[in-house]
Amino acid sequence: MALIAAGAVLSVGTAGAAHAAAGTTEAPAARVVTSGGVTFSSDPTPEEQERLRQIAGAIWNDTLAAGWNMNSDVAAILSTATGEILKCSEAFALVPRPAGFIPGLGYLVNYWKNLRDYFLVVTKDRTYGVCVKATALNYRSAIEMASAGI
User: Fold this and answer.
1) Which of 39, 79, 119, 138 qualifies as a FRET site for 145, CA 20 to 30 Å off?
2) What band does 65 get if pLDDT is binned at 50, 70 and 90?
3) How far apart are CA 32 and CA 113, in angstroms?
């Protein structure tokens, strides 16, 4: 049941919709969509960094995420990785999402708890866990390099 509830919350719109739903009045961080994913123009705030770290900890593990510099490049990699997990889950008919949706910084920081909980639940499921595990494997080097400023 928790998996279905988390999936329902995750299917909510884009970063702008996330800010509206959360009642946030500030604009989401500027972003430029490129062929490789999302690029953020400024580094996340300390609160946003902690939320991103929670999501990263659910994908990789808390120890790895604790050592990463949660800069704008890491946020962009985490955004792309989150999109890949949701896309993979959708292939299993678990989480419907809008076509072409790439989770922005606003989506990640507003839905961080739902994302973290969802990733922790699906990781334990043999079928859906492959989505998180494959994404963790595919994006590990990229997120390590982004954290190091490479």
Assistant:
1) 119
2) very high
3) 25
Express each pLDDT in 9-47 by its tens digit. 444 333 333 333 333 334 344 334 333 555 566 889 999
pLDDT digits (tens, 9 = 90+) for 70-91: 999 999 999 999 999 888 877 7
The amino acid at residue 52 is: L
Helices of type H across the chain:
2-10, 15-22, 46-59, 62-66, 72-91, 105-110, 112-124, 129-147
Residue 53: φ, ψ to 5° = -60, -35
Instruction: Write out pLDDT tens, residues 88-122.
Output: 877 765 555 556 667 788 888 888 888 888 888 88
3-state secondary structure of 93: coil
Q: Give the dihedral sign, CA 28/74/98/57.
A: negative
Q: What values do phi and psi take at 85, rounded to 5?
A: -65, -45
**DSSP string spanning 106-124?**
HHHHHSHHHHHHHHHHHHH
Structural element, H or E, at residue 31: strand 31-34
Q: How far apart are CA 149 and CA 109, in angstroms?
A: 21
Question: Is residue 134 within 8 Å of 59, Cβ to Cβ?
Answer: no
